[in-house]
Amino acid sequence: MAEDVEMLNMPEDVLIDILSWLPVKSLVRFSKIAIWNPSSREFKPLPLSPIKRAKHSAFGSCGFGFDRKTNDYKVLRIVTQYLNQRRCWVNQAEIYSLDADSWREIPTLEHLPQDIGDIPCFNTYHDGHYYWRAFRGRGGLILSFDFADEVFEVLPLPDPGEGISWNNYSWHLAIFNGCIAAVLYAWQDPEKCFDLWVMTERGVKDSWVKQARIGPISGVDRPLEFWRNGGLFLKNSRGQLVLYDPSTQQLKNLQLPGPQGRLQVVTYVESLVPINGRREDEDDLFVRTTIQNS
Asked: Which of 154, 181, 187, 201 holds its CA 20 to 30 A away from the CA of 83?
């Protein structure tokens, strides 16, 4: 087991220095968010947002990133609310600044991340930008957010080829060799093949290049993240974390189960940057959360 733990200490470029974590469902229901630095053992519950919203609101996707222009860490949250007068759902985007220790509203977006209204989860962060899977009608797209300029941008998905229907395919966002990547696969197949597409020029649809096909692999559910030397973390059919080695075409079970539908691999680089919080053992909320999830 010690070998497995050591494997997960990824020596990649610094993508994000402090791991933000939204620990339990109860915090989501009460719209509370906390950030956590595992290196310093600091835990900081964020203040409640003063922004007015409708009674029926869903707190969905969150992102955490670094603003290189102001040397500030920020949290982005997308809120969906139902307006009775208009009988429709509308979106609201809020951003928290660690330096200011406060929330403010920013211009909203048209395209929703797919996990909106569900338990918040990580997607993909790279070089000051956060990326989500999103949708427009029946089609998929990539939604990005620039933490420095605080603007959203829509990026196109690759064209999977003639005769291939998106209705039969699922896809996962990842970072591969410093570029945005999309992993496409037929979700209903018992033996899955994973097509790796890489966007070589950010925002340009014609720059998508299909670099590899991984598989077929039996007994796996979905991809999670890439590892060194082309390895791929996946969730198997029993909800466990496994690592696929393309050189040997073997799966290694890392013996790490996760919540149903929420098992994820997140890049973490050790940092001692203070977040002006309290130590874990001094924070009653963190202690109770840890006990509830143990």
From this structure: 154
